[in-house]
Amino acid sequence: ALLTMKATVITTFLGVFLTCTYTAKEVTKKTKKAKLYVPQIDCDVKAGKIINPEFIAKCPPGCQDVKYRVYGTDIYASFSSICSAAIHSGIIDNTGGKILVQKVAGHSAYRGSFSNGVRSLSLPRWRESFLVSEGKPRKGVTYPSTLEYSSSKSTAVKSGKYLEYQTTPVPTPATQMATTTPTPTTTTTDPSSTVPQPNTTPAATRTTAAPAKTRPGPHRVRDMAFRGTSTSASIRNILRHNTGAQRQEPVASFQRAASSPVHLAMEIDSWKPGLSIFDTGFSSKEELNPKPLESNSQGNQNCKVDLSFLMDGSWSIGKRRFQLQKRFLGNVAQALGIGSAGPLMGIVQYGDDPSTEFNLKSYANSKDLRNAIEKIEQKGGLSNVGKALSFVNKNFFLDANGNRGGAPNVVVVIVDGWPTDRVEEASRLARESGINIFFVTVEAAAQSEKQNVIEPNFVDKVLMCRTSGFYSITVPSWFSLHKAVQPLVKRVCDTERLACSKTCLNAADIGFVIDGSSSVGTGNFRTVLQFVANVSKEFEISDTDTRIGAVQYTYEQRLEFSFDKYSTKQDVLNAIKRISYWSGGTSTGAAISYASEQLFSKSKPNKRKIMILITDGRSYDDVSLPAMAAHQNGVIAYSVGVAWAAPDELEAIASDPAKEHSFFVDEFDNLYRYVNQLIQNICTEFNSQPRN
Q1: Do 79 and 46 touch, CB atoms closer than 8 A?
Q2: DSSP state of 440
Q3: In what order do the strands lie in the sheet with 472-475?
Q4: What phi and psi values does residue 446 have, to the nearest 5 degrees?
Q5: Side-chain half-sphere exposure of 376, counting CA atoms within 13 A
Q6: What is the pLDDT of residues 34-73, one digit of tens each?
Q7: Residue 93 in 3-state DSSP?
Q8: Which end of the chain is more exposed for a tag (fewer CB within 10 A), N or C?
């Protein structure tokens, strides 16, 4: 009986054990099968439109587009496109992918930068921010399989942390986003149709840092979030995905700044000057058969450019070669994939005089464009390319003709032989207007044409921005022109390398007006020069990009170097380092007048004229009238006051609004803290103004 009882107990125990084991396995199987469903979002979805405080989402391909705006660097204002911000940060590329989004508190002074093919814009402040990282779940966090959006039919937003830009101070400061559902609030008008104007932000909303001496408020509100960090290192962190490991570097040194993505693209440019397209590795099949894109009424969204082709209609080309040129243009139109959200294309025919065959808004698809090209009749005359470039620069890229503003402006010039007028000056003016110029030269000048050739080496003279090999294609014969279709389309659509597009870093003439009075002292003067150098090196410097000039003043004034003196960044930095301390009185008003006459009167017409004046005391003469005259002549003035500088004079010197254009530093050693903020304000002003 005892053995029977033991056997029964053992049998019961084994049965319970096997049942539990089986149940556990079934639960494990079900658990393993349960996978996180990742919701997909559109390219244009702003972070503020999604209420969830933390989520994983999937971005589709094709979000690297200027219309999907991004505000900030590393940390982004929630007014930004989530997917475009992820591309800008290097988490994904234009093919899309999964990302992790975390909402955080609002910030001041979002910094704009160019990274990974996306130009982010600056923004003075926003109530909510977000971070993007790789789309890997964090331990202990449950992610939603569906995202909760704010209502698209109402301007009221459910999230208390998403608040549109306001022109009045927000009464309660932004707080860190909690993991619980935020308290609903009502917001102002949805800003999706208009970009906020940064210069309306009151200074009271900025983070302040109190200097040791008692100073009036407006000139003390400049330290902000950049305290205690090297400016050069901070700027380089923006580009970390392109420049590799970071190292902190003293701002005081006169070292060359790390290259921007555009610079890197130019440095590794595989298109060598004089390289023929027939040495670029394109297969004959690719050359002969331009691949038509799939039918898409919106066009190729990966190639959003505004194109003008200058078509050679001179008599020297002949009727047969003119037909080959039209066939080439038709094939280019097909390969581009014309459409309202992609490339738009117009044609100007030139001979003795240029005329527009059709503009950017004439045709919205490749088929209609090709049919229109077939109907073009030859004009005849000489090959006056310079006159045609001037015509396009003044008349083609206008809003009335379909110019979209956000898309790069590109001109492709087709030349049979050589131009019969001067091209260099017209090309320079077009580049300074932000136009990227490509030359496709076919054959050499005919014997009868050589007497009319004015600039035999015109391609070398026009320079094509930074790298002439990229912007120049040489074709030995009109019967080989079809081989240039794919190489040309590839370059035209490579928007990251279109070097002539204007930005806040490459479209200014910047003149430094430096106080060299006795109160500064030799040691502090060197600190001022370090500040000047560290501001300068963050800009793209060349004869066609940003140019730098400098004036030193005491009772008298001295032109240290003019805008056209140096055309490379290293030469500018070396020139700043060589400036010798003068010593004397302080006549700031006379210095402003001198800079207006000696520097800014010689500024290029298509450049922003920016004056940065640094002083440490009250002027012996009036500053108001000279500053007013400079403002009226288009000079954007920034004043930087140190130690005993007079607040009223700093405001009088600065452009409106003075709070955005004037700075006060309690001592020279703290100048480095304001480099980043100065550049931020320059870019904010640039982004808020209309430009061609």
Answers
A1: yes
A2: E
A3: 355-358, 344-350, 306-312, 409-416, 435-442, 472-475
A4: -65, 155
A5: 31
A6: 566 889 999 989 998 898 999 999 999 989 887 788 888 9
A7: strand
A8: N
For residue range 380-396, what is the model confidence (pLDDT) as tens digits? 888 888 899 999 989 99
Is the CB of residue 491 less than 8 Å from the CB of residue 438? yes
Are the C-beta atoms of 339 and 296 separated by less than 8 Å?
yes
3-state secondary structure of 470: helix
Residue 472's nearest CA partner among 304, 277, 324 is 277
CATH 3.30.390.30 fits 306-497, yes or no: no
Instruction: Give dist(CA 634, CA 269) in Å, integer.
Output: 37
Q: 3-class SS at 226?
A: helix
Do the two domains 306-497 and 508-688 of this chain adopt the same fold?
yes
Q: Give 3's contacts (C-beta < 8 A, 6+ positions apart).
A: none
Query: Residue length, the chain?
Result: 692
Helix (H/G/I), strand (E/B), else coil: 524: helix
Confidence of residue 507 (pLDDT cuts 50, 70, 90): confident
Give the DSSP letter string of 619-658: -SS--HHHHHHHHHTTEEEEEEEETT--HHHHHHHSPSSH
Residue 332: count other Cβ atoms within 10 Å of its Cβ.
Answer: 27
Torsion angle (degrees, nearest 10) of CA 499, 500, 501, 503: 90
pLDDT tens digits, residue range 298-348? 788 889 899 999 999 988 888 999 999 999 999 999 999 999 888 999 999
C-alpha dihedral over 422, 424, 425, 426, to 10 degrees? 80
Residue 649's alpha-carbon distances to 207, 574, 628, in angstroms, are 23, 31, 12
**Cβ burial, residue 175 (10 Å; 0-12/13-18/19+):** exposed
Secondary structure (3-state) at 125: strand
157: CB partners within 8 A, 6+ apart: 48, 49, 51, 150, 151, 163, 184, 185, 186, 187
Cα–Cα distance measured from residue 118 to residue 64, given in angstroms and rounded to the nearest whole number = 6
**How far, CA to CA in Å, does 410 sit from each of 2, 170, 436, 469, 506?**
99, 43, 5, 16, 17
Neighbours of 568 (CB within 10 A): 12
Q: Give the count of alpha carbons within 13 A of 670, CB side only.
A: 20
Residue type, 252: A
Looking at the domain 508-688, which fold is it? Answer: Rossmann fold (3.40.50)
CB 541 within 8 A of CB 261: no
By DSSP bridging, strand 508-515 and strand 557-561 are: unpaired
Q: How many CB atoms lie within 10 A of CB 530?
A: 21
Rg (CA), the chain: 30
Task: Give the residues across from 35 on adjacent strands.
Answer: none
- HSE, side-chain direction, 13 A CA sphere, residue 573: 21
CA distances to 516, 554, 555, 615 from 583, rounded to whole Å, are 5, 7, 9, 13
pTM (global) more than 0.70 = no
Residue the block writes with tokens 């910047």: 510
Break the chain into its structural domains and give their ranges.
47-134, 306-497, 508-688
284-290 contacts at long range (C-beta below 8 A, 24 or more positions apart): 286/486, 287/482, 287/483, 287/485, 287/486, 288/482, 288/483, 290/331, 290/332, 290/334, 290/335, 290/485, 290/486, 290/489
Domain 47-134: give its CATH code.
Answer: 2.170.130.20
